[in-house]
């Protein structure tokens, strides 16, 4: 008679590898690659969403926030939103930071030019009213008034702040 090999059940008492604890939100942020953990990318995403929202709402409400939102102005907002979202989601921190600096200069420059080249006049698009700093970039199609200039200053400041702020590495965070 042939000897049968004795069947051995696997032991249930084997030592298991220790289970890792679930990640906490701060751990998840610190474990992200450096390209993902930055204020500038968050600013680009938030501002991109706001640009797209304003661009779409501006098509229906052309005097939103007393701005002069013509069709061409809304197209500029939609393009700005798409670009901002792209740099917030799909690029490196360096590219997002460069974009944020460029947009800060662009929108700050628009505000500066608006206050410099603007003249008293009656707007023909958007918020139809007398404006002391109306800049007719393309008369009857693309006009920027004082409200637009103030909004452009705020946009420039947000992008500049986003580009300047940086996350500290986890080992440099000091808790008191």
Computed Rg = 27 Å
The domain count comes to: 1
Oligomerization status of the protein chains: single chain
Strand order of the largest sheet: 1-2-3
Structural class determined from secondary elements: mainly alpha
Distance between the termini: 78 Å
* Major sheet attributes: 3 strands, antiparallel
Query: In terms of per-residue confidence, which ranges show pLDDT below 50 for 5 or more consecutive residues?
Result: 24-35
Verbal overview:
The chain is mainly alpha-helical. It has one domain. Helix content is 52%, strand content 9%. The protein has 5 helices and 3 strands; from the N terminus they run ααααβββα. The chain has helices at residues 25-31, 39-60, 71-89, 93-117, 146-164, and strands spanning 119-122, 130-138, 142-144. Strands 1-2-3 form a 3-stranded antiparallel β-sheet. The longest helix is centred in the middle third of the chain and has 25 residues, at 93-117. The chain is elongated. Mean pLDDT is 83; it is low at 24-35.
Layout: helices, strands, pairs:
Elements: H1 25-31, H2 39-60, H3 71-89, H4 93-117, E1 119-122, E2 130-138, E3 142-144, H5 146-164
Antiparallel strand pairs: 1-2, 2-3
């Amino acid at each position: 008679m042939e000897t049968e090999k004795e069947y051995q059940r696997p032991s249930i008492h084997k030592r298991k590898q220790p289970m890792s604890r679930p990640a906490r939100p701060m751990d998840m942020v610190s474990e992200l690659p450096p390209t993902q953990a930055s204020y500038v990318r968050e600013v680009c995403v938030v501002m991109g969403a706001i640009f797209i929202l304003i661009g779409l709402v501006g098509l229906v409400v052309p005097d939103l926030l007393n701005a002069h939102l013509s069709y061409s102005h809304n197209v500029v907002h939609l393009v700005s939103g798409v670009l901002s979202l792209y740099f917030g989601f799909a690029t490196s921190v360096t590219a997002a930071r460069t974009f944020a600096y460029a947009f800060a200069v662009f929108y700050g420059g628009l505000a500066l030019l608006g206050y410099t080249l603007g003249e008293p006049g009656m707007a023909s698009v958007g918020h139809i009213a007398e404006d002391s700093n109306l800049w007719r970039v393309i008369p009857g199609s693309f006009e920027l008034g004082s409200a637009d200039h103030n909004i452009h200053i705020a946009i420039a400041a947000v992008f500049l702040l986003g580009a300047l702020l940086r996350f500290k590495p986890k080992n440099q965070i000091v808790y008191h």
